[in-house]
Amino acid sequence: MQQESLTLSDFYHQFPKADLHYHLLGGVRLNTMLALADKYNVELSEIDAKCYYRAHQEETGKMKGGIEALTLLYSLMRAPEDYFQVLVEVAEDAHACGVKYIETFWNPSDLPSEYANMNYQTVTDALAEAIEHVEHTMGLVIRLIPSINREKSPEAAIDMVNDMIAYPHPYILGIGIDYKEHNASVEKFWKAYRLAEQHHYRLTAHCSEFGLHWRNVETGIELINIERIDHGYTIIDNPELTEKYAQKGVPFTVIPSNTYYFKQWPEHKDWCQKHPIRAMAKAGLNIIPCTDDWHIHNTTSANCYRVMVEDFGFDLDSLRVMMLNSIDASWITEQQKQQWRISWSEMFDSLRAKLTTEPVIPQEHLIQYRR
Ligand SMILES: [Zn+2]
């Protein structure tokens, strides 16, 4: 019997993946955004909605920022069942890309306060119910990371952590911080982080995004005890710290399909020369490709790994290493990690054996990432 063969695109879609840097509302489909606006009688034309979605950038001629999109979406989600629906749709889209595990951020301090049924507890319950539904129907595991909106006050962040303490849930694993970092580096929120740490929550943070100084990563790790960094690209400007964190194995969730650098270098050919993701890998840092804002930024998990190969020059053995890095850097139980390391490796290898062709990478661009 002839063995079933796979194209590279099939392969990127089918091998098992964990996405550890996923903003829940970045995964809202365009049609869902429009349906939510319709449901709550909010005026939003299709063309205006499309401005938030990179897939429609050429058609609209403009692109609003990801943060603007999330801000609009939080205002449009006015009932716990909206969160249930969005999480199920996120799972459907991820499942179609071979994703087996997601740790997703959401921002409790962005809940619209004028709706009495929308508070930390009711939304957590709706998300937990949806998590059980998708685990049961698709076998996809999702866990939650409430995330500080750093454009709001440090006290709002403490309120969020106090809600987490008052209403603990086994699906809530830790805290994060996101939104615009320029005037709000992580130390401003030290109290919220300290409180979360005292209550045994795991800690991650967006640090040194938008080309901001490596100091933000250093402060996060050394002062706030952040154990996993989101973005963190400018760390490579400090070789001493880079070596230290490479040795320590600090995980960095990196976003191959979207960073501020791409606005500087719109040509894909430049990415292979200049993008810090390559330098991070070469320096031996623990990197994990993730999607960030799935629909808003018009990407998928399969696309992120494709970009790692086609635009950044990593070979397939490198992808296997990153897949295992993603399991190790996750906050799921040790027992589950051990199972996944074995079963995902087997799946990766058996799918790879069916490839009709391996990617061809020019020697001068090739990276063999083996940490
Ligand atoms: Zn992010």
Automatic annotation (TrEMBL):
InterPro entries in the cross-refs: A_deaminase_dom, Ado/ade_deaminase, Metal_Hydrolase
Domain Adenosine deaminase residues, every copy: 16-339
Residues that span the membrane, as ranges: none
GO CC annotations, alphabetized: cytosol
Co-factor requirement: Zn(2+)
Molecular function via GO: adenine deaminase activity; metal ion binding
Name the UniProt record assigns to this protein: Adenosine deaminase
Organism the protein comes from: Photobacterium profundum 3TCK
